[in-house]
Write a structure and sequence with these properties.
single chain, alpha+beta, six-stranded antiparallel sheet, five-stranded mixed sheet, 5 helices, 20 strands, about 25% strand
Length: about 325
């Protein structure tokens, strides 16, 4: 009988292994589909089966940059993290120099809500185990589903701004960026991922993936993380688009795509889980009223989590397996 049980377990394990799809060693989560792209330049996945392998052939032909115009699902990009020791926050840039805010920032927040540290540790354990995580390809957009605003990560969506972080430092409430991010996938049947508001460590992992010098020495003057001029929706001379001076829809221009991720710089600043000075939460990336040369993608700013929501602040979802 024991031998029969062992054989059954073996076949069950084989089936489970067969059901796991991997691209370059990166696991594609259940009910998500590989769209295209490479580990080096950004593996893109979607939660819509219609998008499956849509740009696989082009990727194999050498073009790993994936447009989003004809994709219908919510899209995410794999961010590799080779060494968990380097998975931490780093000082961003402001006016071409390293900023000075990081010394008063913490993550997870000691002033945060119940289970905040536990949730952070679960995320970090997943990053270490899988050597990376997925980030929403776009700033959070919103679509009406049954008359209710629902979070999407799609090109051409209305940016979800005028949203507070939560009710307070110690309560995420139900209508803030943290709650909306969690509600995208966490605990939903059919998915084996946890969705969260992006963490500061994750934001900086993206910056370091784009430019490894971000972790060690000063970035070059033309580095995206130090100078995002022309790489986002900013109020600057290089922006000749019709939406200059206003918030654009998500992914409005392919010029704003880096490693297959859109709008890390400009458009709206994005809430993170990071704390500043015990009473504020950090947001990143500057906005449409700024200039990319002075306020690049790596910049930090902060605001009280439960205060009146601002036009220039949005958010971005991350997911982990």
């Amino acid at each position: 009988m024991n031998e029969a049980v062992n054989i059954t377990d073996k076949f069950a394990n084989n089936k489970e292994t067969a059901d796991i799809v991997k691209v370059e060693g990166v696991t594609i989560p259940k009910n998500f589909y590989y769209v295209g792209g490479t580990k080096a330049d950004g593996i893109v996945i979607s939660d819509a089966k219609e998008d499956k392998n849509k740009y696989k052939a082009e990727t194999e032909a050498g073009n790993s940059q994936i447009p989003g115009d004809d994709l219908v699902g919510n899209q995410f990009v794999w961010v590799p993290v080779k060494n968990i020791e380097s998975f931490k926050t780093y000082e961003g840039y402001f006016w071409g120099e390293k900023d000075t805010l990081l010394s008063e920032c913490k993550e997870p927040s000691p002033s945060g809500y119940d289970k905040e540290s536990e949730e952070y540790n679960l995320m970090k354990e997943s990053v270490e185990k899988n050597q990376g995580f997925y980030v929403a390809r776009y700033e959070a957009g919103k679509e009406k589903v049954g008359g209710v605003d629902t979070v999407v990560s799609k090109k051409g969506a209305e940016v979800w701004n005028f949203i507070k972080w939560g009710d307070s430092m110690t309560s995420i409430g139900t209508e803030g960026a943290v709650a909306k991010s969690k509600g995208m996938y966490t605990g939903k049947n059919g998915y084996d991922v946890t969705s969260t508001l992006i963490y500061g460590t994750q934001w900086d992992a993206i910056m370091a993936w784009i430019d490894p010098n971000y972790k060690t020495v000063s970035c070059s003057d033309d580095s995206f993380v130090k100078n995002s001029e022309g790489k986002g929706n900013f109020d600057e001379e290089k922006n000749t688009n019709k939406w200059k001076g206003t918030i654009a829809s998500t992914g409005a221009s392919d010029e704003y795509r880096v490693n297959n991720i859109y709008d890390l710089a400009g458009n709206v600043q994005e809430w993170t889980m990071e704390e500043y000075q015990t009473t504020n939460r950090v947001f990143r990336g500057a906005d449409y009223t700024c200039e990319g040369a002075n306020t690049p993608a790596s910049i930090r700013n902060f605001y009280a989590p439960g205060e009146n929501p601002m036009m220039y602040i949005g958010f971005r979802v991350a997911i982990y397996i």
